[in-house]
Recover the amino acids of this structure.
């Protein structure tokens, strides 16, 4: 269950891979730029975007609490680029928090209700709220930054596995010893 210095435990791995899949689904929203969303991705995956985003908000809060509890016994990022990797992981966490928050403000700021699979959980004000719109408008630029970070992160994982041939990927896959 718990992490060890050699590998991530089952809970950390479940958070990592479940959230990675959900975030990749969220990135499908970029395809709304094609034909104003009038295509199969827009019509099947994207309608759940706000609700999945709210699930991700709950998951990231739980994940941060779990990471704090595991501090001191998780794998330590080592090597010449350790600081770079730590900052990268920190920025990934920041994006995971800011994306759902700015997404919700985007909707609420325009006076619409915040819905969870159809059920309004925060009622719409019916009026525009400027500060919410201003923060909500950061949703798209942060999404692009997040995409770049994830691409860099995956490239780093593949580089560790194939070029450096170390246990970095294995310890997140549960294949590393102890
Ligand atoms: C981790 C959570 C989330 C991720 C990764 C994410 C990702 C994205 C991406 C990639 C886009 C397309 C941006 C673009 O084309 O420039 C987008 C747009 C959008 N998202 Fe999210 N999102 C998340 C959460 C939410 C939430 C919780 C809501 C609302 C409740 C939301 C509402 C929207 C809206 C309304 C747009 C369209 C914005 C526009 O037309 O400019 N998102 N999101
Ligand atoms: C949206 C996608 C992703 C996000 C947001 C993400 C985020 C993170 C974060 C924050 C960490 C630090 C450990 C933690 O606190 O959980 C981490 C570790 C890791 N991730 Fe990802 N990740 C994503 C996708 C991937 C993918 C697709 C791969 C593999 C190809 C991958 C491979 C790894 C590896 C190997 C580690 C361990 C790094 C180490 O121990 O130094 N991640 N990831």
């Amino acid at each position: 269950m718990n992490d060890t210095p050699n590998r991530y435990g089952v809970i950390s791995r479940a958070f990592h891979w479940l959230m990675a899949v959900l975030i990749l689904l969220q990135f499908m929203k970029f395809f709304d730029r094609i034909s104003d969303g009038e295509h199969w991705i827009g019509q099947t995956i994207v309608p759940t975007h706000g609700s999945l985003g709210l699930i991700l908000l709950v998951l990231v809060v739980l994940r941060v609490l779990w990471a704090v509890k595991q501090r001191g016994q998780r794998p330590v990022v080592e090597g010449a680029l350790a600081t770079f990797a730590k900052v990268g992981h920190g920025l990934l966490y920041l994006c995971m928090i800011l994306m759902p928050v700015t997404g919700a403000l985007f909707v609420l700021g325009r006076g619409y209700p915040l819905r969870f699979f159809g059920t309004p959980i925060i009622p719409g004000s019916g009026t525009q709220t400027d500060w919410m719109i201003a923060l909500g408008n950061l949703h798209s630029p942060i999404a692009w930054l997040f995409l770049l970070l994830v691409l860099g992160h995956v490239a780093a994982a593949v580089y560790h596995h194939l070029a450096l041939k170390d246990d970095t990927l294995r310890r997140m896959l549960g294949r590393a010893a102890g």
